[in-house]
Design goal:
By secondary structure, the protein is α/β, with parallel strands linked by helices. It has two domains: 28-270, 3-Layer(aba) Sandwich (Collagenase (Catalytic Domain)), CATH 3.40.390.10; 281-459, Tetratricopeptide repeat domain (Serine Threonine Protein Phosphatase 5, Tetratricopeptide repeat), CATH 1.25.40.10. The chain is built from 18 helices and six strands. The protein has helices at 58-69, 100-114, 136-142, 157-163, 190-205, 230-239, 250-264, 281-291, 297-313, 319-332, 337-350, 358-374, 378-385, 389-394, 398-414, 418-436, 439-450, 454-459; strands spanning 28-29, 88-94, 119-121, 129-134, 148-152, 180-185. Helix 2 (100-114) runs parallel beside helix 5 (190-205), helix 12 (358-374) runs antiparallel to helix 13 and helix 12 (358-374) packs parallel to helix 15 (398-414). The longest helix is centred in the C-terminal third of the chain and has 19 residues, at 418-436. 52% of the residues are buried.
Amino acid sequence: MRRARRLLLPFYLFLGACMPVSGADTPTRAAAAVSTGSNLPPMKSFAVPRPTPSVASNSDMARDFLDLAFNLESGRSLTILTRFEGPITVNVTGQPAPSLGPDLKRLLNRLRREAGININLVNAPEANITVQSVTRAQIRSALPQAACFVVPNVSSIDEYKAARRTRQVSWSQLRERSRLAIFLPNDASPQEVRDCLHEELAQALGPLNDLYRLPDSVFNDDNVHTVLTGYDMTILRAYYDPSLRNGMTRSQVADRLPGIFARINPRGQGIAPRRLSKTPRVWINAVQTALGPGANPSQRRAAATEALKVASAMGWRDHRFAFSHYAMGRLLQAYDPSLAQDHFVQAQRYFGRGQETALHRAYVASQLAAYAIAAGQAEDALYLLTPHLDTASRHENAALLSTLMMLRAEALELSGRVTEGRQARVDSLGWARYGFGSDWAVRAKLREIGSLNPARRKRGAL
């Protein structure tokens, strides 16, 4: 049975559109939009990865590994570990977007260097992993509510369509990994294509599950991290440790994990475990109703209220409690902006000050800065935004980075620093082209953020 990955609303978007959700055991991702051609400044991209090392304890990582590797997103258990054995080859077919080649090479370099995985790009149809680049329409004809996904035992989308109701493409029936296909859109923004690539290749190689309790990982349905983190690379390094092998049971793997993590992540030995509680299904369902498709506004707000109640009842004071406040803030923006702002403040508070939630705080800062700009509080906005520019860059999130820069441009102009503001806005556009793709999407984001500025509204200069 297939289950599409449940993806929540991206933090960096101010608009209220929600991502699609469906049910199956196939890891997928939701969509974006892009067109070709531009009269904007050249697109920028991230040249040198700057991953932050994991700050998790090895005890927590061993528990996380087992929950990630021996369960599917649907909650179904897996009886054995499956992975590739020996060198892994990757081939690209279809009509890839221009950005895919460089982004794939950078990712493969990271996997070799940081995760110790012997993986290489080849030009051969018999590759272990085929990355097929197709249109969004083709993807949705195969899996209607997905924008990208990974499937075992096929090499093309046509082969998947022919086999999609058979045991051949069932992850729960898999006994070893030898041939997989990843389907990526070639008509989405460069960042959307890259984000899909990171998530789907990570799941092609390793764990198939996602856990909301993980604050610093792509293996989390909150969709905050979209580029593989230091934590993710450590999990993948453990996944391909020589002391594990294809076909091991959960207990056999559990016996070996303490030694594996002590060896590959020695700093984790000295970190106290957090032992975060499991995330109950009632909270997951509430969050997904609040931010997913299919519910009306009142149902969404009721679901967000339920998520907050569950988080409080669980005694959480971690990133999940903060996310509950964030969800409520998003849903209240159109109805009670003042109360929405209060929830964003609470979200920022409970995201704390740790390295593992730095990206979360950057997202929320964009919301709080928007309120400050709309209120004419330029210096407050600059204070909120400045610390998070490097965070967005470090996590290679061009959409968030350009949004923060556009907000900063408005704050600078509002404070009278017009020349600096104009330069900041120009500097944002190259990142926006990578993050949002099409000219119209970039210009829409500019207009949206420009409309916050009270001075601009007075001039009618939108």
